[in-house]
Amino acid sequence: MEKIRRASHAGSWYTDNPKKLEEELDGWLRASGLVKSPDVRGVIAPHAGYSYSGRAAAYAFANIDPSSVSRVFLLGPSHHYYTPKCALSRATVYKTPVGDLPIDLEVNEELKATGKFELMDLHVDEAEHSMEMHLPYLAKVFHGYSVKIVPILVGALNAENEAMFGRLLAKYVDDPNNFFSVSSDFCHWGSRFNYTHYDKNHGAIHKSIEALDRMGMDIIETGDPDAFKQYLLEYENTICGRHPISVFLHMLKTCSTKIKIKFLRYEQSSQCKTMRDSSVSYASAGAKVDA
Length: 291
What we know:
Number of helices: 9
Family: Belongs to the MEMO1 family.
Protein name: Protein MEMO1
Organism: Camellia sinensis (Tea plant)
Largest sheet: 9 strands, mixed
Strand content: 15-25%
Order of helices and strands: EHEHEEEEHEHHEHEEHHHEE
CATH class: Alpha Beta
CATH topology: Protocatechuate 4,5-dioxygenase, Chain B
CATH architecture: 3-Layer(aba) Sandwich
Pfam families: Memo (PF01875)
CATH superfamily: LigB-like
Helix content: 25-40%
InterPro entries: MEMO1_fam
C-alpha cells in the first residue's frame, strides 16, 4: 500500500505553485552555468528556504547527469527528533509540487536488515526539512528519468557510529548507478544560534565567518573525516549537517572508487557587521570520480 510523505514545507519554505517552482529551479540551474557530468556521484547542498539558499543549491544540482543515475541516497541531519542512530523512512513515496519520488523499498529493506537503523514515524519525517529541500531539485533534474530515492535521517552520531555507517554505506558508492545528496547548511552565526566566534584578524565579522567556513570546506575537500572532526572540536562551527558530511567522508574513504569533493559556491544569508547581526552560510559541492 502506498504511504505518502507530503511536501510539508511547500507553501512556506518554497512555493507550492508547480509552474512558479519549475521556473525558479530552471532559472537557478541555468544561471549556475555548470555542465552535467556522469562523473559527479554526489553533492553537498544547503537546505534553507529557497529565497535564502535556492540559488546556491543550484551549483550542486546542475552537475547531475540524470541518464547515468537510477537511485539517489539522501543524507540529512535531524533538526527536531533526537536519535543516536540513522533512521529510514516508513513512506513509499515522497511528494513534491514538481513530481513525486518513489522510495527504493528493496534497498530500504536491505538497510533495515542490518539492524543498525531505526524507522522514523511519518510525523517525524514530515517535520524534518533537511532532505525535503533537496527533493524539488531532484524531481526537476530527474524529470523524465526513472529514479528512486533512499532517504536516511542522520541522527546525533558519535565518531564511532559515523565511521560505522560510513563503512556500511560504502559499497553503494561503488555502484555507478547510485548518487548521494548530502544536506547541510554551514555556519549559523549570531547570539540567537549561541555562536559568535569572531577572529578580528580577518576584518569584518562576515569575513571571519567566511574564513572559518572555508577552512572547514578545505578540510572536507581533503576527504579526511578525522581532520573534519578535529576542526569541529576546535572551532565548534555550527555546521548543521556535520554528521551527514562525516558519514559521507567515511563512505568515500572506505569505498574502492576514488571520489573527490570540490566546493563550487559559497554564500551567506546576510553580511554580519555587528554582534547583534546573524547569518547562515550556504555551500554547495560536487563529489566527482577522480580519474
